[in-house]
Amino acid sequence: MEPKHYTDDEVIEMIRRAGNGRKEALHFAYISWRSSAKAILVAAGAPATDAEDAIQEAIVVLDNNIRNGKYHQAGSLKNYFIGICKGRLYSNRRSTRRIEWTSDNYKMDGIEARQPETLMLEEEQKTIIRKMLDKMDEKCRQVLRLYKLSYSMKEIAEAAGLGNDNNARQRVHKCRKKMKELVAENPLFANYFKDQP
Fold it and tell me: Other CB atoms closer than 10 Å to residue 36's CB: what's the count?
């Protein structure tokens, strides 16, 4: 079923007001703009899975920017969102590159990081991580996604309907513990989930 259509001003106001309206506005943005954003990212050479990751992260960034006053209206909200998607894709790609400077010629020695073998390994890692997440309930997937994107416990509690910071902290701890148990079945990925202070 197609979501109700909202203007940019309505989406912005609903996100700022929070509550169910915020969820509805973000759902509308995701459903309405996802296919356009994905087509643009794939046309730019992104694998479909990388495009999806960038789009999901971009929804969180859009929400955060509007709520924290970082968004200044200067065009359509859809174009702003697609710009965030491009930025997330670029940032995710850049983070996979290892750049080293050699003492003799000062050339970048990191091009091999995007060789086919490396890309295949990255896709394999993402696939295994997705499979582990699929074994968890939707609430855990949601709080872990927000936790990974550095949302505060208060924001996680609000977004996931957990009541307060303490409940969010307990749920994040429980979900991270569950993830670690799943990771134990795949030791190759243990270094991805080291304890954080």
Answer: 14
User: Mean of the pLDDT values across residues 180-196?
Assistant: 61
Largest CA distance in the chain: 61
For residues 15 and 67, give the distance between their C-alpha atoms in angstroms, rounded to a whole number: 7
Sign, CA dihedral 85-89-94-95, equals positive
CB 38 within 8 A of CB 55: yes
| Check whether domain 111-190 has CATH 1.10.510, yes or no | no
Q: Does domain 1-95 have CATH number 1.10.1740?
A: yes
**Which pLDDT does position 112 carry in this prediction?**
39
Q: Where do the domains of the chain lie?
A: 1-95, 111-190
Nearest-angstrom CA–CA distance, 53 and 34 = 11
Q: Tell me the whole-structure pTM to 2 decimals.
A: 0.51
